[in-house]
Write a structure and sequence with these properties.
The complex is a heterodimer of chains A (358) and B (303).
Chain A: H1 29-33, H2 44-53, H3 56-78, E1 88-89, E2 92-93, H4 107-114, H5 133-169, H6 171-186, H7 189-203, H8 210-215, H9 217-229, H10 232-246, H11 249-256, H12 261-297, H13 309-316, H14 325-352
Antiparallel strand pairs in A: 1-2
Helix pairs in contact in A: 2-14, 3-5, 3-14, 5-6, 5-9, 5-10, 5-12, 5-13, 5-14, 6-10, 7-9, 10-12, 12-13, 12-14, 13-14
Chain B: H1 2-29, H2 43-52, H3 59-71, H4 85-120, H5 125-138, H6 142-156, H7 171-197, H8 200-207, H9 212-224, H10 226-249, H11 255-265, H12 268-296
Helix pairs in contact in B: 1-12, 4-5, 4-7, 4-10, 5-7, 6-7, 6-10, 7-9, 7-10, 8-9, 10-11, 10-12, 11-12
Classes of the chains: A mainly alpha (358), B mainly alpha (303).
């Protein structure tokens, strides 16, 4: 090796580095600056959020969802109609105000307004029982939204607990727990849901329990059904993740220096699966909204007169020819919400799934 | 392979039994028998009815008898119309099967073609247009899709006549059923095709001078269809459950609308029969697609 250089290398001892200082030169200032850390140090979460905010579709979806949520909360406060209340003009019931087009007024309302009275406009018209349609769509959105969020929260809790126990325990426990999951997974879920919804609708009575009484039996049975069947996907995912993480060298290293099980779960397992769980939950919400609207559409959803987007769309079918907007408004609402959640779910996956980064 | 087959078939049988079990016992849990109709019946009449339909026996025995009858292809008679359920299912399923099969074909063929186009034109305009519609269609529940199609093409534009038994027009129901699964298949094909196109064997094929179209059809497309096979099972399930509302919307007298009607009418035997029948098809298709998947892709370990 040394033969290639002009300057003969001084003879060194056998085990020395054999380094010749003359072959090196000091770095210039420009070269030194290359070593400087330019970017701010970042955490996994902050980095993910930055990626999320750079995705225009995700930001747009979040804005849409925010607007929908604001509408859900505040619209009932300033719209002077109730969701099950017939329109009254100056204290008189107005049956002629049925099936009005958006921003139209009935003869009685027109007359009242000519006399100087104030009528809140029917932003989405009225339905066949002369109820303000906008407020019904708002309440329908509330119902669909809440069902979606709570159902996915239930899926989250049950699925994560089940999957974590199964994955962490391993061995025979894991085998049997997963066999149960396999069986539930292979059941045709929507059929079972329809079946259970029929039965619960007939046989359960929650009118004595205060919180459930407002929700109606159908809603409660829907939660039961979701809780019984929909968690298996989450459980599988969490178990798979835990099994992989458990095999990693850093867990072995932590164990070998005497870390407790609690510390391994807290410091190594939870931070590594949290992003996958969040992504899955975000994708679960639109699925739950789909199922709710489907059940409502075939008449197994929330109890009347409480509207849901599915039951509004179903009721609008009969007058589709003459009053198409009654079908369009709740349908567009479903599409908007599901689309926004889908896009956010995809964006979350892109931003927080380290496996996708290359 | 044999071990996997046995295991997979056993799982399917267990699920099928469980469906029967859940169906039977949930139906029994409903308060008020099937004969508590509008008119009050005397105790004697009720007893005769109960004896005739075997409802006076203990629940366990009823279940056992029911299972035995199902194995003989006998689903009992409808409590509302008195007709044989197996015959009713057979007749109405003919209509549903025709629409369903067409929808599956449309979803598969167009989904695969569009997915391949999107993958081959990644980030160019065909890809963007396809992905726009895919995203939109996956956000539309089947009943919204069906109502909108009906509203636009039947009522507003009057291009397609409304469904009638004498003059059935399959275009809209098939479209309504197939668009969302098609969107899913497009997405699936696109992802897997992009994955396959990045593989070494594609580069090898190109390097040794295989023609461009041959690389795409023989090397890339065939391999990227493997994930699509796994979706055939869920696809059938989605088409079948979708048909429940779509037949209702288009007023098609198929199995779907019979099922929804039997729910509204509390026709227990009909609900049970239809549920078990539909579940059987779904579980069977899942089994078939799982086994096909293992056969087609030799990389997957059989166990």
């Amino acid at each position: 090796m040394a033969k290639n250089f002009d300057i003969p290398t001084p003879k060194k001892r056998l085990l020395s580095l054999q380094m010749d200082p003359k072959k090196f030169e000091p770095a210039t200032d420009a070269e030194k600056r290359q070593q400087d850390v330019m970017a701010e140090s970042t955490t996994f979460f902050r980095d993910g959020m930055r990626r999320l905010m750079q995705n225009p579709l995700a930001v747009m979806s979040m804005v849409i969802l925010l607007l929908v949520i604001l509408m859900m909360i505040f619209a009932p406060l300033f719209v002077p109609y109730g969701y099950e209340e017939m329109i009254t003009v100056n204290g008189v019931r107005d049956p002629a105000a049925a099936n009005l087009a958006p921003f139209h007024y009935s003869a009685l309302e027109q007359q009242y307004m000519d006399q100087g009275g104030k009528i809140f406009p029917h932003i989405m018209g009225t339905d066949e029982l002369s109820r303000d349609y906008f407020i019904r769509v708002v309440y329908g959105t509330r119902v669909s939204f809440l069902v979606g969020v709570f159902a996915s929260l239930m899926v989250l809790i049950i699925g994560v607990l089940y999957g974590a126990i199964s994955g962490y325990a391993g061995g025979r426990v894991d085998l049997w727990m997963m066999r149960i999951v396999d069986i539930i997974y292979s059941l045709p879920d929507l059929l079972i849901i329809i079946l259970l919804a029929v039965v619960f609708k007939e046989s359960l009575d929650f009118s004595q329990i205060p919180i459930f009484a407002n929700l109606g039996t159908n809603m409660v049975s829907m939660f039961i059904v979701f809780g019984l069947l929909y968690w298996v996907g989450m459980a599988r995912l969490v178990r798979g993740q835990i099994l992989t993480i458990k095999e990693n060298e850093y867990v072995l290293a932590a164990k070998s220096i005497g870390a407790s099980a609690k510390r391994i779960i807290q410091k190594h397992i939870i931070p590594n699966i949290i992003s996958v769980i969040i992504i899955m939950t975000a994708q679960e919400i639109p699925a739950a909204i789909f199922t709710e609207s489907y059940l409502s559409f075939i008449g197994l959803g929330v109890a009347l007169p409480m509207p849901s987007l599915g039951s509004l769309a179903n009721a609008a079918r009969s007058g589709m020819q003459s009053y198409p907007w009654k079908l369009v408004f709740p349908s567009v609402m479903i599409i908007l919400i599901v689309l926004a959640f889908n896009l956010i779910g995809d964006a979350l996956r892109d931003a927080f799934d380290p496996k996708l980064r290359k | 392979m044999a071990k996997y087959l046995v295991k997979r078939v056993a799982l399917a049988l267990v699920s099928l039994f469980l469906v029967c079990f859940i169906t039977f016992f949930t139906m029994n849990a409903i308060p008020g028998g099937p004969f508590n109709g509008e008119k009050a019946k005397s105790a004697a009449v009720m007893q005769v009815l109960n004896e005739r339909y075997g409802l006076d026996k203990p629940v366990g025995e009823q279940f056992f008898n029911y299972l035995k009858n199902i194995l003989h292809g006998d689903f009992g008679v409808s409590l509302k119309t008195g007709r044989d359920i197996a015959t009713t299912i057979g007749e109405s399923f003919k209509v549903s099967a025709k629409i369903g099969l067409l929808a599956i074909l449309v979803a598969l063929i167009f989904g695969i073609i569009l997915g391949a186009i999107a993958a081959l034109n990644r980030n160019k305009w065909p890809d963007r247009v396809i992905i726009f519609f895919v995203t939109l269609f996956t956000a539309m529940p089947s009943f919204v899709m069906a109502s909108f199609l009906l509203l636009i093409f039947c009522i507003q534009l009057e291009w397609v006549p409304v469904w009638s038994t004498n003059n059935p027009n399959y275009v809209l129901p098939v479209l309504a059923l197939s668009l969302s699964p098609m969107a899913y298949i497009t997405r699936l094909t696109k992802t897997s095709m992009l994955d396959v196109l990045g593989q070494d064997y594609i580069r090898t094929a190109r390097a040794k001078g295989v023609a461009h179209w041959k690389v795409i059809f023989v090397h890339a497309l065939r391999n990227s269809l493997i994930p699509v096979i796994t979706y055939v099972g869920p696809l059938t399930a989605s088409i079948l459950t979708g048909s429940l509302v779509i037949e209702k919307i288009f007023t098609i007298g198929g199995l779907g609308s019979k099922f929804v009607d039997s729910i509204t009418n509390r026709d227990y035997t009909m609900i049970m029969g239809t549920t078990i029948f539909l579940a059987f098809i779904m579980i069977l298709m899942n089994l078939v697609s799982d086994i096909l998947y293992k056969i087609v892709d030799p990389r997957i370990k059989l166990d």
